[in-house]
Amino acid sequence: MKFIKSSLRNIRRSPYQAFAAVLIMMLTFLTISFFTFLLSGSARVINFFESKPQVTAFFKNETKQYDINALEAQVKNTGKVSSVKFVSKQEALKIYKLQNRDDPLLLDLVTADILPASLEISTFKISDLSGISEMLKGSPVVSEVIFQKDIVSTLVSWTAAVRKIGIGLIVVLSLVSTFIMITIIGIKISQRKEDIEIMRLIGASDWYIRWPFLFEGMFYAVSGAVIGWVIASLALLYSTPFLSSFLKGIPILPVSPIFLFEVLLAELIFAIILGFLSSFLAVLRYLR
Q: Do 41 and 60 fall into the same domain?
């Protein structure tokens, strides 16, 4: 408690330096929060597409049921598919009628004989879709395979790029925060040089002198983390209606409060470590 009071007194003595330290930490953890939300949302989008049929194989009209069963078994034996659903001509007609229920003319023109039977296939991993699609195209009983390869590939590559950019920015901002914190704590130590000498003369240990500066660094980091998380969370909550309309049909919003607090807890742990490490490097450099 004594060390914390001393840390707060140091902060009050130089509010501008404290503001600069909290600001740089806030920017760091604001970036961390935004990219955490973005990567989490991207992962949920991918999981959503992985849970849906991504490859649809349409059969030729003369295809026999045993040929369909044989192809279905062949697909399942790959060990890459999570589900295989057979859609008969009658079921395809029901789907068609449901999709075009507002247009009676289209309903009168289509019968079950016109629509092909199909297999709807989902894979455990999006990266396995290409192989499954090529295998289906090679089957003599399949007339057409629908596989939105470009969309899936773009989604995966975009997520990977966002992850790399996010990690890069977080590392750079963490390093910048560390160097700025070392400089600010170093200035604080220099300003209290006479007090530190007096404390040493009366027998104060090195750790007794260091702890207030260490708590000060952790205070800056934790404050910045909380402010950054609050700004990012509010931005996410206010943008939820727009994002929900944009991601219509993909149930990733609203974000669970439990997830938000899990992010806050992880950031607080990282903030304490980052603040302690920065302050410790500063006292090692300036308190000799």
A: no
Cβ contact 24:224 at 8 Å:
yes
Average pLDDT, the chain: 77
> If we measure between CA atoms, which residue out of 73, 149, 84, 157 comes closest to residue 118?
84
pLDDT digits (tens, 9 = 90+) for 44-68: 777 676 666 578 888 888 788 888 8
63 lies in the same domain as 117: yes
Q: Choose among 140, 178, 169: nearest CA to 62.
A: 140
Beta bridge mates, 58:
118, 144
Whole-angstrom Cα distance, residue 280 to residue 190? 15
User: In the prediction, which pLDDT does 115 show?
Assistant: 75
Residue 146 has φ and ψ, to the nearest 5°, of -100, 120
CATH number at residue 80: 3.30.70.3040
Task: Assess whether 159 and 40 both reside in one domain.
Answer: yes
Q: How confident is the model at residue 268 (pLDDT cuts 50, 70, 90)?
A: very high
Place of tokens 């659903």: 85
Mean per-residue pLDDT, 133-148: 82
**Residues 95, 100, 104, 108, CA torsion sign:** negative
H/E run at residue 228: helix 206-246
Residues 6+ apart with CB under 8 A from 35: 162, 165, 166, 169, 170
Q: Which two tokens stand for residue 179?
A: 């160097």
- Number of structural domains found in the chain: 2
Higher-confidence residue of 206 and 32: namely 32
CA atoms 7, 12, 14, 19: torsion sign: positive
Mean pLDDT of 230-245: 78
Q: Which two tokens stand for residue 255?
A: 């974000």
DSSP, collapsed to helix, strand or coil, labels residue 57 as strand
Longest Cα–Cα distance in the chain: 99
